[in-house]
Design brief:
By secondary structure, the protein is mainly α. Helices cover 71% and strands 0% of the residues. Helix 1 packs antiparallel against helix 2 (37-56). The chain is elongated, with a radius of gyration of 15 Å.
């Protein structure tokens, strides 16, 4: 498949959409979480999409591309920890949690595939 840019990547689209969803739901978190959990989960979820874009710009250098994707995978994992906390603190319902965790599981699988097969994206 020929990609015109990072916005063509399904993994980017999924990460971007998930980060928007997280932004919306965290607006309803308790005020005392504004500078802690809300900031953390918003930062990590946004970082997934942003760093996919950054990795894309490094695809002329496969090792740099893979290294950046490994960082992205870490941000996705961090986001799932904040989602776990959000559910366990009863800030989000289980149905929404399950949906978001499912999205991040899929994003993580896609990132792992990209890490193991950079030749499909690098030139």
């Amino acid at each position: 498949m020929e990609y015109q840019g990072f916005r063509d990547l399904i993994v980017y689209q999924k990460a971007y959409t998930a980060s928007l969803e997280i932004f919306k739901i965290t607006a309803k978190f308790p005020p005392e979480e504004k500078f802690s959990l809300v900031d953390q989960i918003r930062r990590s979820s946004r970082s997934v999409a942003a760093n996919i874009a950054e990795a894309w710009s490094k695809r002329a250098y496969p090792k740099l591309f893979v290294s950046k994707l490994i960082e992205v995978s870490g941000e996705a994992s961090e986001t799932t920890v904040w989602l776990d906390m959000s559910k366990d603190l009863h800030y989000i319902p289980s149905v929404l949690y399950d949906s978001l965790i499912g999205q991040y599981d899929e994003i993580s699988k896609m990132l792992t595939s990209m890490i193991h097969h950079p030749e499909k994206f690098c030139h």
